[in-house]
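Risk mitigation, structural track. In case the binding assays with iron/sulfur cluster fail to produce interpretable data, a predicted complex structure has been prepared as a fallback.
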Amino acid sequence: MAYNQLKQQLIEYSKEIGIDKIGFTSASPFSELKSRLKEQQDLGYASGFEKGTIEERTEPQKLMQGAESIIAIALAYPTKIPNAPRSKKGERRGMFCRASWGTDYHIVLQEKLQKLADFLEERIANFQYSSMVDTGELSDRAVAERAGIGFSGKNTLLISPELGSYIYLGEMITNIPFTPDQPLSEGCGTCTKCLDACPTGALVEPGRLNAQQCLAFLTQTKGYMPEEHRDKLGNFIYGFETCQVVCPYNYRVDFHHHPEFEPDPDLVKPKLVDLLFISNRDFKKKFGKMAGSWRGKKPLQRNAILALAHYQEKDAIEKLIQLMNEDPRPVIRGTAAWAIGKIGTIEGYQAIEKAMEEENDQEVLIEMKKGLNFRDEKKRGISK
Ligand code: SF4
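Fallback model:
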């Protein structure tokens, strides 16, 4: 009874501190998830960014001795940029996905969870807890689903019927035996919009994602972008969210509940050329607070080059040639060479031929050849 009262008080408090949804579940193992994770691993569908063993990811007691319950929280984030700058010829802009707008959500949600912990610590002797947001062992989605925050969509994301899927999730394991909430009975029904719209077929079946084919994941890798996916990114330089954009649960959803998540238009739609030569120091100063900067500047620069190729931005050729000739990182030189060929100017092709005489890296040379192939295909009347 006392714990039920405490639960109510905590729910009230969570509203005061700006948590959009809160739910409670037991700390019992996520048995169904265990077999799914094993399958994902066996099929080679995992991203590699996951933390911990499958046991740790599915058995809260392995993470905290005496675990009794898990408190799940959700915060909604905006989907529209007020006064968004236009991407125009000569000044093309890239795009960070919405989950990277504003201050890094890991920080914001950890602060909210800490406030909840402080609230409980003041009221319960020997209170113990362990909080995590995204990068912890537990699956935020599985916890939130079991805690009744939303349901798991066919796009593998947690969908709240009221808030949609543009929500951040976090959780706290506690040693308090709170009464669990009930999972929702709602679901996707016969809708398959996300599966139909995914440009790479990464949603291999309803509720199953091959992370290795997911563009959101691929924008965060540091090697070469697989060639077959380079054209599909459009101007996205971090993340990708078609499976959310098409989801009916997200129609007209645009929550501006948290000033921390408000996008700075110039940051979330940065000028692509400006990104190409940014120093580490300026990158940290400008983008360091965004979730999308967690892998450093290299993947974003690689993606910025691909976005310039997507726009066929001839005005950027000179800068791309400079990158191809001078950048110490092979992936950047090679991607620049590919983009130069894709944009397809005589000056660009000549620059690739010249650069090939000096280049020693075999992979960069392959990309240079691919760049020149665009010219040959053009000559033969084949255009990709
Ligand atoms: Fe479910 Fe349709 Fe949304 Fe996909 S697009 S998650 S199938 S409701």
